[in-house]
Batch of 4 targets.
Target 1
Amino acid sequence: MWATFPINAAFTCFSVALPLYVLSIKGNVLDITNLFAVYNLVSIPAFVIWGAAIDRMRRRRFFYGLSFAGCGLVFAAMFLTASIPVLFLMVSLLGVSIAASGPISALLTMELIEKKHWYTALGRLYFIATGGSALGSLVGVVWPGSIPVGYLLLFCSFTSIASLVVTYAVVRDPPMTLEVASLPPARSGRSVGSPSSISSRLLLVVTVPIRSFSRDGVKRAYKGFRSGLMEGRNLLFFSGFFYMTGYAVLNMSYVAFLSGRGVSNPVIFGIAFSNVIFQLGAFALVSYLAARLSGLKLGLYSILLTAFTFGVMGVAAVSLTGPSLVITNLLFFSLSGAGFALWTAWTSLALFSNLESQGQAGVLGSYNALIGLGTVLGSVVSGVISFYVGYSVTFLASSGVLLVSTELLRRASRIMRFVGGPGQAQ
């Protein structure tokens, strides 16, 4: 578990440092959002390939260490280049490298701990990883302004190698192994590539299995959507797709927006740190809230909270400047992190409680693929609107897309019956 601490520090720091670094070498918001889009797009097939390799070779520690070593080398290579085309190659390699470690975190937890303690252990894994995310943000807060932001990539490289060292110091291969396809859904959800903490989530999440991703499954869901036959789980799938699209629309261009408004790098990292802390607090409240909000209410409220905060930030982008803009963004971007955490936790529980006995891995893999594609689409849309129209329109558009997600989930609530929260479906 402790191997996730340094690597999450690396990726949370990277999620803010990359946009700032791109801007420092004369790049723009389109370059930033396209880099994140490529990173996410590459991660989808990488999960499939790594999942098959992990299942075949069953050498957990080897692949864990290989993933962290690859990340450390890629971060170091990024530091040595000031070419944006080369950065596209580097983020592609980074997406491939980090994809191997996600399922292993969950597999090792379940293989080394009794089943009755799984969710407690997975919760502990999340808190350790989030501690790393907090550290990654704090490093940016205290980073001296006299040192170029590109040197933060060296910090990312060193902490990645630290995860490699921890892996070989404390991680052991289990006597009996599970397959990637047997993983339960994530408790914290999966997303990659935003300047809050989303792009660090590939490690700290307990990954929903994607090894058995089926193109036919996605085609069937799409046909159902076109024919008006969207029911229950399919509505939940597409609600998740639109949620991640909307969330990415704002997040992928957010650092560029703050930097363009004259917000200093330490303050930008401070806003990211506050977002992580709010996510941590929200996860701590999930069980309490789920027990008191029946049916799909927790999911609906979490999406509405995110949509509301993004809408306020869109208005603030037009009407506020200076300290008032910073304070507003600090508050509402942090609240959006709470909304994201509640949504990811609730969605994982809701999906798991509505799975059929057969084909679970394929269903969850299709959902994970839709989420990834939503993040890629949101990245591209974010860059285009921000560059050609403006950030305020980008933020308001993200809020509108989230309302589409809300409507789809509201329709699902008419079909999917839950009792006493998402953990008890009927």
Target 2
Amino acid sequence: MIGFVLFAPAVVAVLLGGVFGRLQEWRARVLLYAVGAGAGVTLFVVASSAESWRTVTLGPASAIAGAAISCSFVLAAVLDLRTDRWRVPTLVGIAGTSMVLAVSNDWLVPGLLFWTCSTLALAAIGRDAHQRASLWATLFASDALLYAALVGWGLSAERWTMPGTLEGWMFYLALAAIVLRSGVVPYFGVWRMLDSQAVAAIPIVVGGAFALGERFVFGSAPLEAAALIATALVVALWGTIVRNTPFAVMGTWPIALLLGAALASRSAATAASLGAVIAVSLFALWPQASSAAPARGIVLAFVPPGVGFWAVLAAATYSFGRIIEAPDVLEETSWVVVSALLPFAVATAVSVGARVARARGDVSLKPAVVASWGLLAVSFVAGLFPEAILDLDEAAVPDPSRTGLLFGAALVLGAAGGWFARKRTWAGRTPHTGAPRNFRHRGPTLGPRSLLALDWTALTLGIGTVAAAAWITLEGLRSGFL
């Protein structure tokens, strides 16, 4: 059963998309999308069983990967992929299956091999992306950092099993790889997929980054968490005040905030990861679902009972408790900063959500609109059962007497900020002017020399990561660690 769930997206995608898809097109497409999305949901549900199959053991990272796979197939089903309606879903299935086999693997060598396969499939999906060299360079640079961290751990420990939470320089290399891949850096990497048929793969790229974080870096990193939360606040304030904010800038807001929450507390990891996957899926749907602005606004506002709110609240509860237990002044100060920034993040989220909710176009009932409201429903249903669905234990569920008043005040402050942003940003304009006028879709265009440099960088890094995968495979076989 587990083997079928793991391989179903890739096998069905290859068979229907590459072999039988053109015989009965609409029936094959419906079956392809249903099996792909259903396999992702099934994987999310059964991941808590910790069942094993060959070298794979299911866990929280598997659940995150399953959610990303499901969202990517939903995007492929509802978005207009034009001539790529078979190529993209087929590669999405391959990338998704490779990703879950990588993040769920117990052994280093097969895990890195599957991860490389996933990256190559994502690079193939993004061949038509605007200035694709940026996407390729970011993906391969992230893989190079990840390889350095994991191979360094394997060689130092003389073990070829997957490590737990990394420490020292290996932790920072892995964290840098996750930050690059997740989309915290505006314009680069995953955001180059927005204006192409590769948009359906965005949840897999971001979900893969969060799944890596769950395996190797999440939990008890207050200094790094504070830096990411502060970055999210700066981006959100910019997006609230400045006109014509680019999608690629606004999209970094939920990712940076939720990544910071997961770094602060491992108990918030599943909720943060699911919230990030849902948020980027809504950004991917935005150009074809402008009338679903209220759904996007509610999710980005992180209001209860959405999964994003639970992630931030669980991280805040944990950070409050760690202030008292901190062994030194530096760590205590770091937890104080995290505890102080998170309520401001909730207030800013309400302001961002208010602005996004008003940027809607003509009312229409397109598949992308229905999918947007469906993602909002998923966020709320998951938030209604935080212990069962979001893997929050009793200690991680916040005590309202400790945090309720503070976050209630933050919500009120955020509502006031949203009203101010409305007056500041749309003064003299007709309400509901449409997303394209208030949020720019495409970021700045790089010059020919910059693109040439990125092309060579991507090529060099790509060859290097593939060579590294081949080397570590041979080294593992020679050393007998497999």
Target 3
Amino acid sequence: MEKPFSDDEFSQMLELIQVFSECEMDQFAMWKIPSKYGDVFIQLARSPQIKASEYVDMSVLLDEKSNKAE
């Protein structure tokens, strides 16, 4: 069994996606990543593909991390 992400690893992943979205991404990014369960498809976009209210707002976790650093 694979070891699950720690809270710090998950926070780091979110921070890196945020940096990517600010420094590298234009309008969208579409990725396919292989896993032992089959391919995983990831879409990052500047506009929602469904109602914005249906997305999980991850900014809360990013804010928690920045508040801990202060």
Target 4
Amino acid sequence: MFLEYSSLLNDGTYIFVAKQAINEETHQKLKNDFEKILNRSNAIKKEIND
């Protein structure tokens, strides 16, 4: 999933930790949670339109 978003991310070092319960979640739930985390941490590049 990280590769899917890597081109949208600001430069930096990213560390993701997952609990065992990750195996019980659907792909869509994981993707939604992943997007929330990236947005909350301001990891996604902001486009500047001049």
